Amino acid sequence: LHMGKTMKEDLTVVAKYINKLYPPEFNVFSIYAELYHNYFATQAKKNAESHLEDKDIYLLLSWVHNFYPKDMRKDHALAMELDKVKLGSLLPSSLSKELENKYLDSEEVTVKNSLSRCLDKEIQRWKEDKEPEKLNGHFQSELLGIFVIQSIYSSQKRAEDISKAVGEELSRRLLKELPAFLRSYRDAFEDFKEKSRKHTYYKPILIANINNCWNFR
């Protein structure tokens, strides 16, 4: 963040004031831009090659695909000058791809585990002697129906914020996880229907789960 802010502010000064003090053939702005970019890219590569936590991988990929090429290099005060300088990406494509795969693997596992925990909690709630919650006057499981959908949607949205390609790849992966989760949900529900007919709130729980199906569709 400090490097990005410094680079943006300093290059703005070069573009507005310093550039016009030199003859065009000196390419003053290009020299400044390349030096700043090379230093920034070196630091980004150094970070990428070190051990990174998941949140750090996400942040670095956001800089590579989003903040750096869009927020910084498309800034109205710099865009025209930077378009003349071919700076390239902050990371080599192979290293960027490696980080993307790490992020996708981690996010896929995180969502899968989150859905599994959610289903476990829901099954536990079926066993309690409590009436299901009502949503807009209808029995429904807010935990299951809403939480699962939001988990998948928010995960997709975060990935899309990195880049369209990363978002599409995660969506492809999660579209495999959702049917697997729904099969587990169906099996658990069938088991409840068979074994819990004497449950005090048997019928409301059935209705709540049937109402969940609409959300999942």
TrEMBL record:
Q: Name one GO biological process term.
A: exocytosis
Example GO molecular function: SNARE binding
Q: Which GO terms describe its cellular component?
A: exocyst
Q: Which domain of life is it from?
A: Eukaryota
The family database entries (InterPro entries) matched by this protein are listed as:
EXOC3/Sec6
The name of this protein is: TNAP2 protein
